[in-house]
Specification:
Layout (H helix, E strand, L loop, with lengths): L1 H13 L4 H14 L9 H10 L3 E4 L2 E4 L1 H18 L17 E9 L11 H11 L12 E7 L3 E8 L12 H18 L4 E7 L3 E4 L1 H4 L11 H13 L5 E8 L5 E4 L3 E4 L6 H16 L4 E5 L4 H14 L2 E4 L1 H29 L2
Helix pairs in contact: 1-2, 1-4, 4-6, 6-11, 8-9, 9-10
């Protein structure tokens, strides 16, 4: 059943949460690859999904349940973690709640308020020997403690491009992008419960969606309103109480849309429109003034996109990388965890400064 559950979870992402369509494709795959036999046929698999309450039977057919939505997120996170090269150091599950920190190899002198369990007794006794070769009684000046990476809270806005180009030219870019969003949400929910994640879809306009809506999100005949997405993310993050804030943007095309005023949509998909580009870059500068770095994940090598992202990154002093569809998951997760640790250490050093 594990195989069918994993397949079903990924098919649900691909079908934008359409349970009946996902089940139909699952049956086709099972028949084609001879995955069913007398002990476990397709009807038994569907019955198991119903009994486990992953799907509900409605007058219109099968529908994904709230438990099923969580199942999709968990399954996706587990698959991404298992596929990462070397894993993510320190990002493993533990059977109990920790104290919000992770021990590092580095040490520092003991300070008032440090926990006793953090003392490195081996180095502390060495310090005592250096101070007085005949007296091993520890004094305050001898004590050293292990540095720890504190889980400083973070507010993240994940911007997901749903313009038509995300499925153009026969390449499915939206499915891996949604996988990243779903798994990142589950990672934050389970490992960093004090964090906040806001998901923003952007096409002709930008819209914030709930975690429950993400599985059902899909592309449309849209252009790319990057300006509105960045502006919405900045306004949302500016209201958050978390000490650290960041924007992750996954896109495959240059900005081609802009909102003029409250109701006028200006579109130019033919080239490098200066008005659209300049307004978008100005918003990147505004994010920088609010100390909100932007990490841009490019999943296409459109020269216009590369040029735009280089300018945006320089103005915002953020980061950018070309991940490609196959490398998107590892790139985003490794970067997210690395940045979170880096911010936590900076925060801790700042708080210990006089």
């Amino acid at each position: 059943m594990d195989l069918f559950e994993r397949l079903f979870a990924q098919l649900l992402i691909h079908t934008d949460g359409d349970a009946d369509e996902a089940l139909e494709v699952l049956q086709q795959l099972g028949d084609r690859h001879r995955l069913f036999d007398e002990s476990l046929d397709f009807a038994s698999v569907v019955d198991a999904f119903e009994r486990h309450k992953l799907v509900m039977v409605t007058p219109d057919g099968h529908q994904l349940s709230a438990k099923g939505e969580g199942f999709v997120r968990r399954s996706t996170l587990e698959q991404i973690f298992s596929g990462l090269k070397g894993g993510l150091g320190g990002s493993h599950r533990t059977p109990r709640q920790g104290a919000g920190s992770e021990r590092l190899e580095e040490t520092r002198p003991w300070a008032f308020g440090d926990e006793l369990h953090a003392i490195d007794f081996q180095r502390s006794y060495l310090n005592a020997l250096r101070r007085d070769g005949s007296d091993l009684r520890l004094q305050e000046e001898d004590l050293e403690v292990f540095e720890s990476q504190h889980d400083t809270s973070m507010a993240t806005a994940l911007l997901l491009d749903i313009s038509h180009s995300m499925i153009l030219y026969g390449e499915d870019r939206i499915t891996p992008a949604k996988r990243v969003a779903l798994a990142l949400a589950e990672l934050i929910r389970t490992r960093y419960p004090k964090d906040a994640l806001h998901i923003i879809l952007f096409g002709d306009v930008a819209t914030e969606i709930t975690l429950q809506q993400l599985t059902y999100a899909g592309v449309g005949p849209y252009h790319t309103n990057t300006h509105m997405a960045l502006q919405m993310a900045r306004r949302i993050l500016s209201r958050k109480r978390q000490a650290n804030k960041q924007i992750f943007m996954i896109t495959d095309g240059k900005p081609t849309a802009l909102c003029r005023g409250s109701d006028q949509l200006y579109i130019n998909s033919s080239g490098f429109d200066r008005e659209i580009i300049n307004r978008t870059l100005s918003e990147a500068a505004e994010c920088r003034r609010h100390r909100i770095p932007i990490t841009t994940c490019m999943i296409a090598r459109d020269p216009y996109l590369v040029r735009f992202v280089e300018d945006l990154t320089r103005i915002n002093q953020g980061r950018a990388f070309y991940a490609g569809v196959d490398g998107l998951e590892e790139a985003v997760f490794v970067d997210f965890v690395a940045q979170r640790r880096r911010r936590g250490r900076k925060r801790k050093r700042a708080s210990s400064s006089p």
